[in-house]
Amino acid sequence: MAENLPKVNSLIEAAGQNFDPVNKIHEHVCGFHFYSHDMSRQVESHHYCSHLKDEIRQCVIYDSNRPDARLIGVEYIISARLFQSLPEEEKIYWHSHVYEVKSGMLICPFIPVVPQAAVDKAEKVVMEELIDTYGKTWHFWQVDRGDPLPYGNNLLFGTSFDDFVSVVLIDIHSFLGPPQLMMAFLDDFQLSQKILDDRDRRFNVSTAHYRKNRENIHPKCNRDLKADHWASRDDGMAYQTEMKLVEQKSLPTKEQRSVQK
Predict the structure, then answer these.
(1) Which pLDDT tens digit goes with each residue over 219-251?
(2) SS3 of 222, please?
(3) Sequence-separated (6 or more) residues with CB below 8 Å from residue 160
(4) How many C-beta atoms lie closer than 10 Å to residue 133's C-beta?
């Protein structure tokens, strides 16, 4: 299949397909997420975002910024005003961005030739917009545990791609793992320093520098405690998705449609 990609791509280009939704992406933000039920599983997440409206960003999330990056999730980002309009039971799926911005861990990667002064000015504008927003994030591909494809069955933890064919023959239901609800950090020492340092080294950035540069960025609204639900619970529990069998609402059969006529 891979050997046919150049031919397929050239045919698509010749046909002139429309890529307007993808072409609207204009912002790259790199941060870290953790699984709502397990803070020890921390994932570097590269958000490529477009504005649906002034108060709504929609972001596709990759595990890196390389050409072979894997699409691992999506995040919807809304303003504090829109967040306040949500039903109370919906707010628990969202997280705040105040700490991510103030801590410096959330960055806007730029190409190396851009002067640091220009980077500081540009990313500060983005962070001033993000600090009062809320995000709802789903990860489909659990790359942190080595999954070769986006499945979710814990029994396949650590399965290599070479083993994939035999695994499918054993358990085709391995692909039924649902998307996972992700959350953001709220305090120092929650994110692994090793993971943070590795990101900073690869992008030649300093989280400490960005923290200093954002000292005068302050939220205009108090953080809604309905967001970041895990932080306000005292029972050690968190919301997460799981699959269950439900009744299917089927369409009328051909015979039933004939009777209805």
Answers:
(1) 999 999 999 999 999 999 999 998 889 999 988
(2) coil
(3) 146, 148
(4) 22
